Amino acid sequence: EAQVTQNPRYLITVTGKKLTVTCSQNMNHEYMSWYRQDPGLGLRQIYYSMNVEVTDKGDVPEGYKVSRKEKRNFPLILESPSPNQTSLYFCASTRTGLLQETQYFGPGTRLLVL
Amino acid sequence: KQEVTQIPAALSVPEGENLVLNCSFTDSAIYNLQWFRQDPGKGLTSLLLIQSSQREQTSGRLNASLDKSSGRSTLYIAASQPGDSATYLCAVKGVYGGSQGNLIFGKGTKLSVKP
Questions:
Q1: Within 10 Å of residue A23's Cβ, how many Cβ atoms?
Q2: CA nearest B31 in A: which residue?
Q3: How many CB atoms lie within 10 A of CB B75?
Q4: Of the candidates A59, A103, A105, which has its C-beta nearest B102's C-beta?
Q5: Residue A61 — pLDDT band, cuts 50, 70, 90?
Q6: Pick from B100, B105, B107: which is nearest to A31 by CB?
Q7: B62 exposure class (CB count in 10 Å sphere: 0-12, 13-18, 19+)
Q8: Does B94 touch chain A (CB under 8 A)?
Q9: pLDDT digit string (tens) for A8-55?
């Protein structure tokens, strides 16, 4: 089954304690991205990756890092989390082709930073 | 900077009604437009994708239209069912990044279909 998995699904942490949210896809897609979703602000892209070792900033990259060492995995790293990073995070994997594309979203990770 | 607006923010209809969700965007230089569905506690599911050169796409009871010049898209849902209850999100991709461009999302319309 084609899917994007994220772990953990729920996380409560404290300010400054480094954390990593993992994302994995089993569809051999080259393009992956991270979004955060906040009430009143909608979904905003944090980082994206067009292929292994190729990453770039989205609209709201401050306070986040990513890596893409292998095609299937795209972890999101918060080196020093702050309360304003409390949010719902989604990883997405995109299949692209001529005149067609499909985004597959993970189930989301709800993060609370105290 | 591209901005995507969805009206209404919430909509409640009785089962069986046909309904229209609206999406508008400020920059007509788009690569494509997509409609997504989001269920509570779950991720997004892609419903329909319209390329910038297309006017509409259909899937089952769903029909999405695109008027690029006026910066508008509509999602038409025929014969609504309680299972259609969800938040519907519209997202546009600008031409500058091509197929790898960034998706800009609207804030969504929360639809409730009453039995």
A1: 25
A2: A99
A3: 22
A4: A59
A5: very high
A6: B100
A7: middle
A8: no
A9: 999 999 999 999 999 999 999 999 999 999 988 989 999 999 899 999
